[in-house]
Amino acid sequence: MKEKEAFNFKIKANANISGLFLKNDISDFTMAMNFIRKLAYGRNKNKADLSSLFTDNCGTCSTKHAILKALANENAQPEVKLMLGIFRMNKTNMPAVATVLDKHELNYIPEAHNYLNIKNAIVDCTTIHSSGATFINDLVTEIEIAPNQITDFKVNFHKAYLQEWLLHESNLTIPLEELWKIREECIAALSRY
User: Fold this and answer.
1) Distance between CA atoms of residues 66 and 56, nearest Å
2) Distance CA 137, CA 80 (A)
3) Please, are residues 26 and 37 in contact by the beta-carbon 8 Å criterion?
């Protein structure tokens, strides 16, 4: 799958998320994706409230893609799917985490990532530089989720994957809690990048 953006639709729904975009002079899906890409990368104060992207002026892969999926849902566009993938985050696909991985003597760490799948093409709107090409070769699993699953469900799915990974990596003796802290260090490094 590769990234492409020929898909577009006019925002017409009289609904919450659609109204937020329209209020900001964003009238179609391509404009919405471009707006979301340009928002700073950062955690939202209330991840469960997707409108917080407009007040916080930032978002993560989770909130940015969940709001785009919610927009597609409001406008009856089932071709837009919200995906939760696990990929091997390493020095090559995420250079900003190299120091953290080296410090903990890890080649990679499995990371959860949200993105869109539109007509079998990966579309990543996390930043203006994001692309499915960054992680596609290191993607180990993916599932389709709903926008309301970016909170507890995503964390639980990710931790379950990490626990299973630790069981199969015989050379690692890191407890899950410690691995999660290392992962948080990686996210902090990405936020500064």
Assistant:
1) 15
2) 22
3) no
Task: For residue range 94-135, list pLDDT tens digits in order.
Answer: 999 999 999 999 999 999 999 999 999 999 999 998 888 889
* C-alpha distances out from residue 171 to 107, 127, 175, 182, 186, Å: 12, 34, 12, 17, 21
Q: Which residues contact 147 (CB under 8 A, 6 or more apart)?
A: 50, 66, 67, 69, 70, 73, 82
Dihedral (Cα; 141, 146, 147, 150), 10-degree rounding: -40
Average the pLDDT over 48-77 and give the result. 96
Give 144-161 pLDDT, tens digit per residue. Answer: 999 999 999 999 999 999
Half-sphere exposure of 190 (CA within 13 A, CB side): 24
Q: Is the dihedral of CA 33, 44, 48, 162 positive or negative?
A: positive
Amino acid at the residue 52: S
Coil, strand or helix at 34? helix
- This model's pTM is above 0.85: yes
Backbone angles phi, psi at 156, to 5 degrees: -65, -40
